[in-house]
Amino acid sequence: MAKDSDTLVHDPNGGLPRLLEIMRRLRDPETGCPWDIEQDFATIAPYTIEEAYEVADAIEREAWGELKGELGDLLFQSVFHAQMASERGLFDFHEVADTMSDKMVARHPHVFGSQTGIDSPEAQTENWETVKAAERAAKGAKGVLDDVAIGLPALLRALKLQKRAARVGFDWPDIGQVLDKLTEEAHELAEARETLTQAEVEEEMGDFLFVAANLARHLDVDPEAALRAANAKFTRRFARIEARLAEQGKRPEESTLEEMDALWDAAKAEEKG
Length: 273
Prior knowledge:
This protein is mostly helical. The chain has helices at 2-9, 15-26, 34-38, 41-60, 64-87, 93-107, 109-112, 121-139, 154-166, 175-195, 198-218, 223-247, 257-272.
């Protein structure tokens, strides 16, 4: 058995069976890696989230040479969780794969069954939501928002909550109303600085961000993607400021805000070319 395992572990073309065996060996209580053996679902979950973001980052940067490795890292997270579940007698990786296969077949009856009338992405989205609603009902979910995952990034969860509420008619019909609400929340936030406690200021800030996510939804913009792009733009332009200052033999902390503002405007103008 050990010999067969070693052969598989060192087989460069071993594919998924090789990865599963490597994971099993890493978690072996007698011969495995102490760090891997010590982990549980809770300690690995943050790494799972991090790897998902690194996949998104590689795609955002169109770093196709890195994407293979990032997808592998994310796959390894699924393998790690499945191995821990198998050790507890909950399920194994093959059951994970079968569950996903069953779900995809059930949610695509126009591909794997006889359903007709789904001839556009919009029609598929509507059908997808109908099928998911039936699945939620079968699980015993009673409230419209019951199974929107709490662990999602807050901005993404806000978007999902709003989409779910909108499907049952709880939504502003006009984007102008959303803009009015955003202006109202901005005014409340400005006033909160002077009159409210820090906890109340935080609450007002949360309201403002929640409405901003709703505005993004009405504009058909992914707020997470938009914010990632804004972060990238800020990073790029600030790096330009640092480079210009370095040419002058200076660092940001040795410069004035006015100097850096002028360099920011120059970087902005260069980009718009």
